[in-house]
Design brief:
Elements: E1 2-7, H1 11-20, E2 22-25, E3 28-31, H2 35-48, E4 53-59, E5 66-72, E6 76-81, E7 84-89
Antiparallel strand pairs: 1-3, 1-4, 2-3, 4-5, 6-7
């Protein structure tokens, strides 16, 4: 199983994701595909996200039982910690 969550995504990308995945809430897409198809879908997200951001999580044979990838500007950043993927927060932008 895989889940993709997008924020501020262009309508074109949202439509493309809706062709392959079920949109269960606004910007939340789920589906079950092979690794090859999942990577192709993620390539579409990376090339079409524009100023938005996205995260994809999928079942994987890791200690955590899943893996994830992110793209776009977001305060949450994945970090590897002794083989575990954790999330760290970037400091708030002082100009915002």
């Amino acid at each position: 199983m895989m889940v993709i969550v997008v924020e501020n995504a262009p309508p074109r990308l949202r439509g493309r994701l809706a062709v392959w995945l079920l949109e269960i809430r606004a910007g939340v897409y789920v589906g079950r595909y092979s690794r090859k198809v999942r990577e192709r879908i993620w390539e579409q997200v990376e090339s079409g996200i524009g100023p938005g951001d996205a995260v994809m999580a999928w079942a994987a044979p890791t200690d955590q039982g899943f893996d994830f990838a992110t793209v776009g500007k977001n305060r949450r950043m994945p970090r590897d910690f002794d083989g575990l993927k954790l999330v760290s927060f970037a400091p708030k932008d002082p100009s915002a």
